[in-house]
Design goal:
The chain has 463 residues and is mainly alpha-helical. It contains 19 helices and 2 strands. It has one domain. Helices cover 67% and strands 2% of the residues. Strand 1 and strand 2 form a beta hairpin.
């Protein structure tokens, strides 16, 4: 039984929002590309989309996806650099070097056309995100619009499916081997999406919701997200979501950072020491592994994971090509022989190890340099004592960046342009760059520089 009406309703609501609630052309272009990636992340066959419609470079949905990417790039090209936007030359040079390495590596890949097209598509996404999107998010007013789009997405995609599940109907809800996946094609995608969308819900709860009813609705949405994560059994999604929440409050609460840090440590100790909590959490962590193995702690359980089996299997092969790699988007093809799980063997489930297999040490070092530069910018933003609204904006981007970087250690989505998580992650990096790029010292004609877009009342009226 298919659930086509569920997909149609979600698409219709999303398109209605883009038509009547978000009139900004750049945000509309981003939203349309976001929507097609959301459709690809769904349980497509369950919602009536056949493989012939979506699989293959020239399938109808594939052509729509790349067409919407072209529109997104076009509007990014039309974005103008704000007057006081400070370009980080070193960061830009590192990004360009990594993109060039991807392009060059396709020459010696097993399939030149496949590798080159993957590299070209990522280069286009990098331009749209690091250029146009960074310029767009430079304005706090635009940040509020962008956050509101993501907040609405959480209500559209996550809440209705959980309500259907609780009502015991189950219509339109994806359940895979007893694990909840909601609208998505697998529980891990649901977990990662939930983790990266949670900071936007937190922002609305903390900085936007004014009435008590609005705040309670946001709390209900957060509870639905947590319930879905627990029912999904997505360990990576759950840990990433908790990390995003901790980082968000760590950035926002200047006076309580030590308390938040200590609370996180106490929670980890409680799970480790308490026999009841430890048993429940161990069963959760060991989901899908061999229950006959003698595992007594969290450090030893990783050795029975299929991921560890794949990583140890391909590592010697990757090390043989440590200077060049096997070509961009090619190394994951070597994974399957080291796992008996056909579904798990389609990817390496580690974005950092995968880029090492694709591009060797040069590519991995360039990626780590990019993340280091973004991390230093996030650290500077964390130390700023700005207005409450501004700190919450910074907290969203930093939380998504940190949670996504941690999540990518167990998933291979970081350089996949057709993956929704990749767009959300690199969008948060563009946000960190944009918030750090403001340099009032360059404006010399006025004695004091005031950013009028920080006034929340003006932001709401313009939105």
């Amino acid at each position: 039984m298919t659930a086509i009406p569920v997909l149609i309703i979600i698409i219709a609501i999303f398109l209605w929002l883009l038509r009547f609630r978000f009139r900004d052309r750049f945000l509309r272009a981003y939203g349309l590309f976001f929507l097609i990636l959301l459709i690809y992340a769904s349980n497509k066959e369950f919602y009536g989309i056949s493989p012939a419609m979506s699989e293959g470079a020239f399938s109808p949905l594939s052509l729509v996806r790349w067409g919407l990417l072209a529109i997104f790039v076009w509007y990014a090209w039309q974005m103008r650099k704000p007057a006081s936007f400070g370009i980080d030359v070193a960061f830009s040079a590192i990004v360009v070097l990594l993109l060039c390495d991807m392009m060059i590596s396709s020459v010696y890949a097993d399939s030149f056309s496949y590798s080159f097209m993957r590299a070209l598509s990522f280069a286009l996404l990098a331009f749209a995100v690091m250029g146009g999107m960074a310029f767009y998010l430079f304005s706090s007013v635009n940040c509020l619009r962008f956050f509101h789009l993501n907040y609405c997405t959480a209500w559209i995609v996550l809440a209705p499916l959980m309500v259907l599940l609780f009502l015991a109907s189950g219509y339109g809800v994806t359940i895979i081997m007893g694990q909840y996946a909601g609208f998505f094609g697998n529980q891990n995608m649901f977990g990662t999406f939930s983790a990266l969308i949670t900071p936007y819900v937190l922002f609305h709860w903390r900085a936007v919701a004014q009435k008590r009813r609005e705040k309670w609705l946001d709390i209900c949405l957060l509870l639905l997200i947590f319930a879905g994560l627990w029912l999904s059994g997505s360990r990576n999604g759950m840990s990433s979501c908790l990390l995003a929440i901790v980082v968000y409050f760590f950035v926002v609460n200047l006076q309580s950072r030590l308390k938040i840090f200590l609370a996180g440590i106490c929670l980890a100790v409680a799970f480790t020491i308490s026999p009841t909590l430890k048993t429940d959490l161990t069963q959760f962590v060991r989901k899908g592994t061999d229950k006959t193995a003698q595992v007594t702690d969290f450090s030893s359980q990783i050795f029975e994971e299929r991921r560890y089996e794949m990583w140890t299997g391909v590592w010697p092969m990757f090390w043989k090509q440590k200077l060049t790699g096997y070509g961009f988007a090619s190394s994951h093809l070597l994974v399957f022989p080291f796992t008996k799980d056909e579904a798990a063997g389609r990817a390496l489930h580690n974005s950092y190890l995968e880029i090492f297999g694709d591009l060797g040490l040069p590519g991995l070092i360039l990626l780590l340099l990019i993340l280091y530069r973004v991390g230093t910018k996030a650290f500077v933003l964390l130390q700023q004592r700005g207005e409450y609204l501004e700190r919450n904006i910074n907290a969203v981007f930093i939380a998504v960046f940190v949670a996504g970087s941690a999540n990518a250690f167990f998933e291979s989505w970081m350089f996949s342009v057709g993956n929704l998580t990749s767009l959300m992650y690199w969008g948060s990096i563009a946000g960190v760059i944009a918030r750090r790029a403001w340099r009032p010292v360059e404006v010399r004609e006025t004695r004091s520089v005031v950013r009028p877009e920080l006034r929340y009342t003006a932001a709401r009226t313009q939105n």
